[in-house]
Amino acid sequence: MERITLACGGRAVNSFEDLTESDLGHANEVYEQVLGEDKYTFIEGVTNPKSCTLLLKGPNDHTIAQLKDAVRDGLRAVKNTIDDQCVVPGAGSFEIACSQHLTEYAKSIRGKVKLGVQAFAEALLVIPKVLA
Asked: Which of 4, 23, 32, 94 stands the most exposed, by the fewest C-beta atoms within 10 Å?
């Protein structure tokens, strides 16, 4: 209820007698929709759209729990990126960059050492493939 008043720009009151025009908020559209066996109220076109609800559906509770965790992790990553104003590459990006550097370095050396450097550079590429 608090999020609705914040999003619509209104103010919560305890009774209709206390209601004034300045307490009312604004929304372009408010409608109810049935999804499956449940009824949901959608409020769209509000004056201060800083809140939303995500509807996650799945075949069982385990899948829904995994979806909730994935959404929470993704939103947390976006929030941290905005707060820190930087991104630390992951998911094998270091290994790819190191492999590229070693491949370039291998062009400048000769002998058995070159084969070892090339083999290590190719071995590093296994990690991003496994992560993908």
From this structure: 32
